[in-house]
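Researcher: Structure for this, please.
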Amino acid sequence: MVTRAARHGNIRTRMYARRAAGSPFMGWLARAGLTARGVMYVLIGIIAVQIATGSSRQRADRTGAVRLVAKTPFGSAVLWLLVAGFAGMTLWRLSEGIWGASEANGRRASKRLANLARAVFYGAVTFGILKYALGIGAPTSSDKQSRDLTAAALKVQGGQAIVAIAGILIIGGGLYVAYRAYSRKFLRRLRMGSASVRTRKVVTRLGQIGGIARGVVFATVGIFLIVAAQDANPHQAKGFDSALRALAHTPLGPWLLIVIALGLVTFGVYSWCEARWRAV
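Model: Predicted structure, token format:
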């Protein structure tokens, strides 16, 4: 039987932990992470524009972005800043997954699970960039990750159904991301009371354009997963890079890729706005 003192101790522990999760230090980690995410999306978008114009063979994903950073005069320092930023994002998402986010519905079980999944994802991103900064290996490309995961899923019983369901979920997630951007629901997370009307309008447009472009890419990745499930061929699965390149082979040609690429750059800029005004 749990004693009253033990119960009070548990309550105090949870209270202190929640205070720590909402502390200024955790807020700093969150803003550092959002800034790093913005840098990554701007770089991926720039690479995608170069691919559309035929001036780059770099991958339009995290691997290509860190390689592009490494080629700059201050590449090593920037890589370590990205490591710190994504480590901050990981810890922030982990705290939200454990103790709940700051928004009104942030403590729902679904929200916590989503934030725990984000923490795992950003932890993997941090580890990949850290290895590259230390010179012991480059981050795995998004295409290889997608193929490897699809191949592993197809080996189990009902693997095609699993991959197809994953594709449907990713398409749904991409459409939801685009819908949230179009309907401006992201504004609920921003605290821009001190910003001018013009600034609020600019940030709103950045969030809409960037979010829709991001959602389109996610949905494209999901479509290729369904194709891979139908053909039982993991090589049909595409990551961020190949999904972007596929947009250049639509009837609209490279212009669609350019539009989406500029949208990703826009999302990167919006991420910097989030780092400034998001409630964390």
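Researcher: Any notable elements?
Model: The chain has one domain: 12-277. The radius of gyration is 20 Å.
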